[in-house]
Amino acid sequence: MEYRFSGKTIEEAVDNACRELNAEKGSFSYEVEDYPNKGFLGIGSKPAVITIKKEESLSDVLVSYVKKLFEL
């Protein structure tokens, strides 16, 4: 499965990924899609965007399925 996260800096995007995926920083690898750009006087600024490719194990799929069942 592929996830995309963004932030003002690459570090902030990685922190957002850790928070959303409930993972530690060293437990996944990422690829920088877009580097942050501050722009001129804040005009034209762009956030950093990273892509994480995470393969889900059978236990991950089962846990997410059971969580969805309990939500219903």
Structure keywords:
single chain, 72 residues, alpha+beta
Task: Give an overview of the whole structure.
A 3-stranded antiparallel beta sheet has the order 1-3-2. The chain is built from 2 helices and 3 strands. The model has no long low-confidence stretch (mean pLDDT 87). Helices cover 36% and strands 24% of the residues. It is of the alpha+beta class and 72 residues long. 7% of the residues are buried.
Portion in helices: 25-40%
Helix and strand string, N-terminal first?
EHEEH
Strand content: 15-25%
Number of separate helices: 2
Q: What topology does this entry show?
A:
Elements: E1 2-7, H1 10-21, E2 30-34, E3 48-53, H2 58-71
Antiparallel strand pairs: 1-3, 2-3
Structure at a glance:
It is built from 2 helices and 3 strands. With 72 residues, it is an alpha+beta fold.
